[in-house]
Amino acid sequence: MIATSFDGQWAIVRRGREVLLLERGSSPAVGQLELESEDADVVLVGPPNVLCVIYRGAEPKVVLHAPPYLEVAARVDLDQPMKLVAVTGSRMVLTSADAKSVTLIRTASRGLAAQVLDVGSAVEFAVGLERNQLLFGLLRKLEVWDAVSSRPLLRLQLQLPPPPRSVGAAAGHLWATRPGSDEVFIYRLSDGRPFRHYVGAPVEDVVCHPASPLIVLVTPRGLVRLHCFAHSLTVVDSPWTPGMPLAQLTAGEDISLIGLLPGDAEPWRVPIGGAGAPIVAGESATPGEPVLANAADRLRAMRERAAAAGGEFVADAQAAAAAASAGTSAPAPAPHAPQAFGTSAPVSRVKAWREPLAGYGLELARGLDGDLPVIAVDTELGELAHRLGLSAGGRRALIALYALYLVGEPNLSIARLAHLLGDWAEPLGQGDLHALAMLRRRDGRVSLRTAVTNALDGAAPHAIRFVGGAATVPRPGVSRLARDGRSDAAIETDLATQLGRIAVIEGAVVIGVLEARLYGATAVALAAPQARPQPWPREAGLVVVADGAAPAWVAQLPAFA
User: Fold this and answer.
1) Positive or negative CA dihedral for 491, 492, 494, 499?
2) What's the CA gap between 263 and 256, in Å, rounded?
3) At what angle do helices 354-365 and 392-406 cross, to 10 degrees?
4) Cis amide linkage into residue 535, ω under 30° from 0
5) Is the CATH code 2.130.10.10 the one for domain 1-153?
6) Mean pLDDT across the stretch 51-56?
7) From-to residues of CATH 2.130.10.10 in the chain
8) Strand-pair category, 501-505 with 522-525
9) Is 58 helix (H, G, I), strand (E, B) or coil?
10) HSE toward the beta carbon, residue 98, CA cutoff 13 A
11) φ and ψ at 494, to 5 degrees?
């Protein structure tokens, strides 16, 4: 195995019972250690940087070795054999074999302290986050704990894939994947927004580092580098072979992938970020390079290229596009990585995104509880959630209610929905869906409005027609526009020129305003309604064309400017 410290100062190489300490990942070794037994975990913790060994033999214990010479500086005995599951800063999380006992170990330069945590249930997984925080995957919930005070801080509502799964951290993000799956999910911790990536081969392992925004995906067909901020995937050209241990060495913005060939004393190193790393389209502000707006745009563009090429996958679509724009050829992948290795999924998989939702809806209709499906950003539901800026709780509620709608059971009790989401805000009308007028609440039951389900079905809106270009951000609020003898066509043309895209209401005003908000357009009423539309979707826009006979509420509106 290979492991590195948080700041990149140290790297350790373990072969059986022998452990070598390398400064900056380079030979010669500055420290050497022989373990008491091979049934042990070895980890670098800090700051301050120390090496810890967790032994699971007849006398379970944690031993601290101080670099660079690795002399024993401290020891703490454990009640039972435990394994290392997470590290955050100078603290380690250990769990028992049944995952029901959790111990937090705090390290200092020459000291150790142990504290038992009561997290309430068995731990499925634990992930070390920034700022001395820990994410625990517990029974039916995800909790973030403060490792300093040893108390829970908040409960997350993330759409993780169902177990069995692997979960880890990168800078500002979480990643998750399932055994044998070719999908990787990235979750932005600032708002919980999920991104799905198709790798094109089963993901066998993930190489990550808490200070690095990059993760390296190990597959039978090669190594793939995924940038969590830019959502770009590229093949890593390296001397890696299957089964070789890997790690990331980070020093500020300079990130390298390191590995160890059999019999070598010094790890090889390949820059994957910062100085010396290849430039990838979408990760640079260099003029002339193609930068796609978001993950949905990237995935859609990749699938279009795959369909045009007649292949199932696209090899590094963004790098190829950048090379084409510069008049050069794209970098060749490593010899062990096939040319067709890439990032997109067959189009049929995207069209079938409602199938897991329908299965989940059937479980709910039968009174069963299940894990909420993960929905890609380039689907009708994903794009609507992104366009409306839904919170994690709002997205989860939207997924659950649409799943029930698909199986003909659109109404769910408030208490049942709160139980599924682990939160009462959305079911009680205190969240995004109510604020956006997307919910119908009646007699203690909740459902989506017809305009919302039509949009998720991919159906055309019923109460509006569009005039103008692509969808834009609506101009929020209600304003009045004097007709001044102009025809409807002239008014529509003038407003489309100013607003980019408008939704002319041709049916019920309340429905028209909601549909306009869902599709990203400003609503226009060519005839003034008798009453102000209610309920009013948050940040919706409406322009009322008024003449001399307009109702009193219209006369009090501010003039459109």
Assistant:
1) positive
2) 21
3) 80
4) yes
5) yes
6) 97
7) 1-153
8) parallel
9) coil
10) 4
11) -65, -45
In terms of DSSP bridges, do strands 112-117 and 125-128 run parallel, antiparallel, or are they unpaired? Answer: unpaired
Local confidence band at 253 (pLDDT 50, 70, 90 cut-offs): confident
Residue 206 near residue 168 (C-beta atoms within 8 A):
yes
Q: Compute the distance between CA of residue 101 and CA of residue 89 in angstroms, rounded to an integer.
A: 21
Q: Are 456 and 406 in contact (CB under 8 A)?
A: no
pTM above 0.90, yes or no: no
Say which DSSP state 179 is in.
Answer: T
Pair 539, 517: CB distance under 8 Å: yes
pLDDT digits (tens, 9 = 90+) for 115-150: 999 999 999 999 999 889 999 999 889 999 999 999
For residue 53, what is the enclosing H or E element? strand 50-55
Answer whether residue 100 shows pLDDT above 60: yes
- Residue 350: name the closest of 307, 319, 391 by CA: 307
Here the tokens at position 12 are: 């350790």
Host H or E run for residue 63: strand 61-66
Q: What is the DSSP letter of 438?
A: -
Describe the strand order of the beta sheet including 50-55 as a list of residue ranges.
Answer: 40-45, 50-55, 61-66, 71-77
User: What are 194-205's pLDDT values in tens digits?
Assistant: 998 988 889 999
Q: Give the number of other Cβ atoms within 10 Å of residue 378's Cβ.
A: 22
Residue 341 pLDDT > 70, yes or no? no
Lowest mean pLDDT among 240-249, 472-481, 488-497: 472-481
